[in-house]
Amino acid sequence: xxxxxxxxxxxxxxxxxxxxxxxxxxxxxxxxxxxxxxxxxxxxxxxxxxxxxxxxxxxxxxxxxxxxxxxxxxxxxxxxxxxxxxxxxxxxxxxxxxxxxxxxxxxxxxxxxxxxxxxxxxxxxxxxxxxxxxxxxxxxxxxxxxxxxxxxxxxxxxxxxxxxxxxxxxxxxxxxxxxxxxxxxxxxxxxxxxxxxxxxxxxxxxxxxxxxxxxxxxxxxxxxxxxxxxxxxxxxxxxxxxxxxxxxxxxxxxxxxxxxxxxxxxxxxxxxxxxxxxxxxxxxxxxxxxxxxxxxxxxxxxxxxxxxxxxxxxxxxxxxxxxxxxxxxxxxxxxxxxxxxxxxxxxxxxxxxxxxxxxxxxxxxxxxxxxxxxxxxxxxxxxxxxx
Length: 387
Fold this sequence. Notes:
Blueprint: H1 9-34, H2 45-99, H3 106-129, E1 131-132, E2 135-136, E3 146-147, E4 168-174, E5 176-179, E6 183-186, E7 191-195, E8 232-238, E9 241-247, H4 253-263, E10 279-283, E11 291-299, E12 306-308, H5 311-317, E13 320-323, E14 330-336, E15 346-351, E16 355-360, E17 363-366, E18 382-386
Helix pairs in contact: 2-3
């Protein structure tokens, strides 16, 4: 018996062509929807490699563009803050020029000084608070690798010698070394020293510690008026803090000297400068007789002080700087203690400021300078551990 297989070849061909067309339609729709000619290796194996490289470059450029936009935003934030600071500095200069006007009274100048003090506080606030994405912009943390107020003592900076990824021991001490002809020398620095005018009695003789201010000719102005008929306030400023004292005609020169010294150190209520070790000495004999010599209790430029008050009072006291301050020189050493003992490294540098970088990767070290008194003592070592 013969077998016969009936096959609808036409229908099979039609179905095969339909499947191919559906596949092509699907591919076309995918390309139209994605906007890409090559979506998978089956589209173009060789072209896929090229397209992926180009796609990676495009994404990198897009990210770079976003990074630039972030950088522009950061700069605009800093620029806005700097514009405000510039406006405040311009105002301070304007006030300084205004105070030189001889038509102003002492009270007018005191009010001008108050506004200048407020502007200074605003500038400090802006420098501390200005930030972008919690990153401080104007507080000094973005300074150079090594920051120092005395760069002449730094011979070289090696930026590639930094310690990374460890626990660190940081030691800060006052530099000490042997100097030929001088022996062991420790760089404590030196304090600022100011000296007053010579106080003379109204009879022309030199005032002593018991002389009352009402009997001192320095407190009589060019018109013959005694400037202390009403008590006045003298301000002593230094290192962003301020002390004050009342100057009245009933004070003796010794009492005035004691009040100046008290205003430079904090009392029990926390008033005054925190310049412990400050000295104010009234000389009653010798070539400095009748003068008050004020010596800051802090070495270096942070120990500078200024006397402000009414023009007549400041002129009568006549304080002038006779010894410029000199900053201590600090040695800073960093050791990576988070590795075995034999693999530890110690990097050391010397700075006159209180901020140093380039020792630990990505970290800038800032330390509060100790209040080095003007008397020489064994330099203490400040030590911390960073984990």
